[in-house]
């Protein structure tokens, strides 16, 4: 699979280098340097990423973690890369492993010849074999097949500049066509590198003549002083024939002494006086005193100072604790309930139909609530409900009912619950369904939609049998007391708050009905028999 990378050079030029998974980053570095004339290449390095991390030139594209069309930057290295280093090569053969140190410029063929020439190692490394067996060297995932490729491939070409490396040697049967293709590919690559080197050499030798002349210093001129002819002497002639500086009939001008003009007096420039801008005087507060008339008074007043100060203070919680599994006191009910108690009258039907129509009308024609509309609705709730009742359900089937102000925050609820726990355990409060954890501690009860009455659940990652304090569990009450607290604080008259109450007819046993005499209304008749 053919890929490519883009290299940004120090001069601002960009170079696109074609690569494959086995291409070494050192090859990319050398090609970029040769194309733009940054020599020697050992003085440069490649960087990649936002942090401009230096990449290892010995890695391949497969293991360097570079994607296709990756952006690399060619920069001047702070320290030149070592060249001509020594590499410890371990040659893995079928019969064992051979180890020796070689220069990074050594080709793989020379390495094989090193062990092939040794008498005691000649049986392990055989470069000549009967048939079409061809020597192959494998380094990581790159294979070098054939004698020609082994001669042209050095350790530096494999990215080995120093350190240790394991190279596997084996004999494989390869046809002539494959060997010729490998040879042509290597020759084509060598030709391309030769052209790049030639272009670089021509670029270095091609220097404009005018640039060279500009850089060279001009040669000094040989000027000799000629004697000045005096009056009455013939004019001076040159040594060249038929050429005179002054004609014979022209008087030679005499040199006059140079007179230097006297230095003129310097004129003084009148400058405007600099105006000094002094800082304004600071007032002295050492003798300042507040008026005696305002002593001890709260002078800070705004629209929320008196009106809403009480709404944020904790109120009497009127705490009630009861067990949901415990049955309350039984209500004396007459076992002989008349049949007319279960009959639905015309009045009951009209009330149910009116409630359903209102509810349907509200759901269908409900406008989108803006922020100002929600705020106005909350203000109307505050006018109707002065208290909010919360029923906190604990895992031990115990319900804690408490009273809060609508403007109190979720933090106040957590503070109250924390004060009645047996131990200081981490916990959280949530509503359900769906499960919504009360995370925002600054949210008021109205904003959390807990007004006028809501059920809140207690949750904790620490499992215990009882979370409430023992003294509170000993004072368990009945559910009837909790209902009395609800009746005490909930308003009896409904106001138009955008919520349509659903009316449920309540029938009292034994009360009967006005139309319970067995007479069937006309509208309820199904027809004649």
UniProtKB/TrEMBL annotation:
InterPro entries (alphabetical): TUG-UBL1, Ubiquitin-like_domsf, UBX1_UBXN9, UBX_dom
Biased composition regions of type Basic and acidic residues, renumbered to the chain: 196-207
GO BP term, pick one: glucose homeostasis
Domain of life, per lineage: Eukaryota
Chain segments carrying region Disordered: 196-236
GO (cellular component) term, any one: cytoplasm
Coiled-coil intervals, chain numbering: none
Domain UBX, residue spans: 383-458
Listed name of the protein: UBX domain-containing protein
Organism of origin: Capitella teleta (Polychaete worm)
């Amino acid at each position: 699979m053919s890929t490519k990378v883009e290299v940004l050079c120090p001069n601002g030029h960009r170079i696109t280098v074609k690569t494959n998974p086995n291409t070494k980053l050192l090859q990319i570095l050398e090609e970029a340097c040769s194309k733009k004339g940054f020599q020697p290449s050992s003085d440069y390095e490649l960087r990649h990423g936002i942090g401009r991390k230096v990449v290892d030139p010995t890695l391949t594209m497969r293991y360097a973690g570079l994607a296709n069309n990756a952006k690399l930057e060619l920069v001047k290295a702070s320290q030149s890369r070592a060249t001509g280093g020594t590499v410890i090569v371990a040659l893995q053969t079928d019969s064992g492993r051979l180890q020796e140190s070689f220069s990074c410029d050594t080709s793989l063929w020379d390495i094989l010849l090193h062990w092939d020439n040794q008498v005691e190692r000649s049986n392990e490394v055989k470069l000549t074999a009967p048939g079409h067996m061809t020597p192959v060297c494998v380094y990581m995932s790159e294979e070098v097949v054939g004698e020609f490729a082994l001669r042209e491939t050095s350790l530096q070409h494999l990215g080995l500049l120093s350190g240790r490396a394991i190279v596997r040697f084996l004999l494989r049967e390869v046809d002539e066509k494959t060997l010729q293709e490998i040879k042509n590919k290597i020759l084509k690559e060598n030709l391309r590198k030769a052209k790049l080197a030639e272009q670089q050499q021509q670029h270095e030798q091609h220097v404009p003549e005018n640039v060279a002349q500009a850089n060279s210093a001009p040669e000094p001129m040989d000027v000799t002083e000629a004697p000045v002819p005096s009056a009455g002497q013939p004019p001076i002639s040159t040594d060249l024939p038929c050429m005179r500086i002054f004609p014979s009939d022209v008087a030679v001008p005499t040199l006059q002494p140079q007179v230097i003009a006297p230095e003129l007096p310097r004129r003084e420039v009148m400058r405007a006086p600099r105006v000094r801008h002094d800082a304004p005087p600071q007032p002295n507060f050492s003798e300042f005193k507040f008026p005696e008339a305002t002593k001890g008074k709260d002078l800070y007043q705004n629209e929320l100072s008196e009106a809403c100060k009480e709404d944020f203070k904790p109120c009497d919680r009127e705490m009630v604790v009861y067990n949901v599994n415990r049955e309350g006191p039984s209500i004396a009910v007459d076992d002989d309930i008349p049949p007319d108690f279960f009959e639905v009258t015309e009045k009951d039907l009209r009330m149910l139909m009116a409630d359903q129509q209102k509810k349907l009308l509200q759901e269908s024609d409900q406008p989108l609530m803006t922020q100002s509309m929600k705020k106005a609705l909350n203000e109307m709730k505050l006018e109707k409900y002065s208290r909010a009742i919360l029923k906190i359900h604990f895992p031990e089937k115990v319900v804690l009912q408490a009273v809060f102000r609508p403007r109190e925050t979720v933090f106040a609820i957590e503070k109250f619950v924390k004060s009645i726990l047996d131990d200081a355990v981490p916990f959280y409060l949530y509503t359900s369904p769906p499960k919504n954890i009360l995370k925002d501690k600054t949210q008021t009860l109205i904003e959390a939609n807990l007004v006028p009455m809501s059920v809140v659940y207690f949750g904790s990652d620490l499992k215990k049998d009882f979370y409430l304090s023992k003294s509170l569990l000993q004072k368990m009450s009945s559910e009837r007391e909790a209902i009395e607290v609800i009746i005490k604080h909930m308003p009896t008259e409904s106001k138009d708050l955008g919520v349509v109450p659903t009316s449920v007819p309540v029938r009292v046993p034994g009360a009967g009905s006005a139309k319970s005499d067995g007479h069937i209304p006309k509208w309820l008749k199904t027809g004649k028999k």
